[in-house]
Design brief:
This protein has 162 residues and is an alpha/beta fold. The chain is 38% helix and 23% strand. It contains three helices and seven strands.
Length: 162
C-alpha cells in the first residue's frame, strides 16, 4: 500500500486543479503538437515529433503521479491543529543557535507535496521540518542534517499558517 500523504485543504485543491488542467488542457495541446509534427514527414528524423512525444510522456507521468497522490492523501483538518505545537498547517519562527533575533526564520510546515522553499514552506519530512514537529515556543531543537552535521534551533513562535 502506498504511503499516506498529508496535505492541507488548500494543497489538496491545488493538486486537483493541476490534475484537471493536465487532463483537459495540456493533453490536448500535446496531442496537437504531435499531429502537427507528423505532418513534417519522416518520423525517424523528426525532432519536433520526438520532442512532442517526450512532452506527452512527461504529462502522462505527472497525471499518474497526481492520481496516485490524491488516492492516498489525507487532508489535515484545521480544527484538529493545536495552536501552540508545531505540526503540518502551522507556521513556525525559529532562530539558529547562537544567532541574533534578526536572523530568525519563518516557515510554514506542510506535507511533502506542498513544500516550496521559495514560499518558505518546508515539508514535515525534511530534516528541519521533521525535527520541529511536536515542539512548542521556547523549545530547543537539534536537527541532524544529511551531511552529518547537527544544527540547533530555538522555536520562537508557533501559529496557524495563513
Amino acid at each position: 500500500m502506498a504511503k499516506e500523504v498529508v496535505v492541507t485543504h488548500e494543497g489538496y485543491k491545488k493538486l486537483e486543479q493541476e490534475l484537471d488542467t493536465l487532463r483537459t488542457v495540456k493533453r490536448k495541446e500535446v496531442a496537437e503538437k504531435i499531429k502537427v509534427a507528423r505532418g513534417y514527414g519522416d518520423l525517424s528524423e523528426n525532432a519536433e515529433y520526438d520532442a512532442a512525444k517526450e512532452e506527452q510522456a512527461v504529462v502522462e507521468a505527472r497525471i499518474a503521479d497526481l492520481e496516485a497522490t490524491l488516492k492516498v492523501a489525507r487532508i489535515i483538518d484545521d480544527s484538529d491543529l493545536s495552536h501552540d505545537t508545531v505540526s503540518i498547517g502551522m507556521r513556525v519562527r525559529i532562530l539558529p543557535e547562537g544567532q541574533s533575533e534578526e536572523n530568525a526564520m519563518e516557515f510554514d510546515i506542510t506535507g511533502s507535496t506542498e513544500a516550496d522553499m521559495s514560499l518558505h514552506r518546508i515539508s514535515d519530512e525534511s530534516p528541519v521540518g521533521s525535527a520541529l514537529i511536536g515542539h512548542k515556543a521556547g523549545d530547543l531543537v537539534q536537527v541532524s542534517l544529511p551531511n552529518g552535521n547537527v544544527v540547533g534551533y530555538k522555536v520562537l513562535a508557533v501559529s496557524r499558517s495563513k
